[in-house]
Each structure stands twice: as structure tokens, then as C-alpha cells.
Design brief:
Helices cover 39% and strands 11% of the residues. It is of the alpha/beta class. The protein has a five-stranded mixed β-sheet, sandwiched between helices. Helix 4 links the parallel strand 3 and strand 4.
Length: 190
């Protein structure tokens, strides 16, 4: 008969391996090494013409996700941001920007995800989100684009050029009064 310590070790080792396998998404390094490559996706903030916009994304053969209505009523001014994932293909970004502002009329803030941010899921760097809340742009310090700036998108010829152009609109954070007092409750373990 085996000693008691040898009877416990194999099930304990199996449980540890199972736990590591199931929690791979919680460890960015493991996810980076062993996780599947995320698929570029377009997220659309819900508004009255979102389904017309989704048809254009479908024509591009990209997965599209229509988000549920936000807790605040949709208006072009309240959702004037576009978030571009760091790894979202630049060719698809260029094509989407040819028609995006017809559906999201006041989209004047184009934000690039930060690949070094630890609290951002890897999949977010492969998504383009049309209709991001404007206050998020203020909080992160993004500057508004002028009409002449949008014409520069046509000349983008590589992923790095897209990143450089978008990053040139990053400034110092300028949170709204209520945002500067917000506590990051999600990091406290609730």
C-alpha cells in the first residue's frame, strides 16, 4: 500500500493542471503563448440605424457585434468616439472610415488601444468600436479630429502608419469633474 502522501499527490497535481488550463485567460502571458489568435471584429453602439451599418461590415466579411442600448440615451454628441484596436487591420480601418461618419455623425475622437495596458483583454486590441462614449475620450486625453485630419486616413499604407497617426491625437488626460472623483472599484476585488 502507498503512503498517504503519495495517494494525495496525483489528484492534487491533476487539479492544479486543470485549474491552470481553465484560467489561462487570467494570465496574459499564458494567453499570449497558448491562446488562439483573436479575430478582428467590429462593435457597433446601438442607435436607430445600426442595422444598416452592420450590413456594410458584413459585406467586408468581418464579424460584427451590435451592442445593447446604453444606459444613457443615444445621441451623436454623447457617443462621438471610435476606438481602434492596436492590432485591428489598417486596410479594414481605412475602409470603415470611408462610411463610418455617415452613421456616427459626430465621431470626432479616434482612440487607439494601449497594448501595454494590463487591465485590457487581448481581444480588445483586435476590435474597432464605433460609438464610444465621448466622456471616455476626454478621460483618456484624446484630441478631436478636424475634417482635414480625416482625409489623412486615405494615405495610410501600413499598420505602423495607422498607429502613428492615431497616437498623434493623444494628449494629457482631461477628465470631466465627475470622472476625476471616480474610484476604480473594479480593481478592488468586488
Amino acid at each position: 500500500m502507498l503512503p498517504k502522501s503519495h495517494r494525495i499527490a496525483p489528484p492534487l497535481a491533476a487539479a492544479l493542471v486543470l485549474w491552470l488550463g481553465l484560467s489561462c485567460a487570467q494570465f496574459p502571458l499564458l494567453e499570449e503563448m497558448f491562446g488562439e489568435e483573436p479575430v478582428p471584429t467590429v462593435q457597433l453602439t446601438y442607435n436607430r440605424i445600426v442595422y444598416r451599418c452592420s450590413v456594410l461590415v458584413d459585406d467586408m466579411k468581418l464579424p460584427v457585434e451590435i451592442l445593447p442600448p446604453a444606459p444613457i440615451p443615444y445621441s451623436d454628441q454623447a457617443f462621438a468616439g471610435i476606438r481602434v484596436g492596436y492590432n485591428f487591420p489598417y486596410e479594414d480601418f481605412k475602409e470603415i472610415m470611408t462610411w463610418a461618419r455617415h452613421y456616427y455623425k459626430d465621431a470626432h475622437y479616434i482612440m487607439l488601444t494601449n497594448p501595454d495596458a494590463r487591465d485590457v483583454p487581448r481581444q480588445r486590441h483586435y476590435k474597432l468600436h464605433l460609438g464610444v462614449r465621448t466622456d471616455e475620450a476626454f478621460k483618456e486625453g484624446w484630441k478631436p479630429w478636424k475634417e482635414s485630419d480625416f482625409s489623412r486616413i486615405k494615405s495610410i499604407g501600413s499598420q505602423e502608419e495607422m498607429r502613428t497617426l492615431l497616437q498623434s491625437f493623444k494628449g494629457e488626460p482631461n477628465p470631466l469633474p465627475y470622472q476625476s472623483e471616480e474610484k476604480p472599484w473594479w480593481r478592488l476585488g468586488f
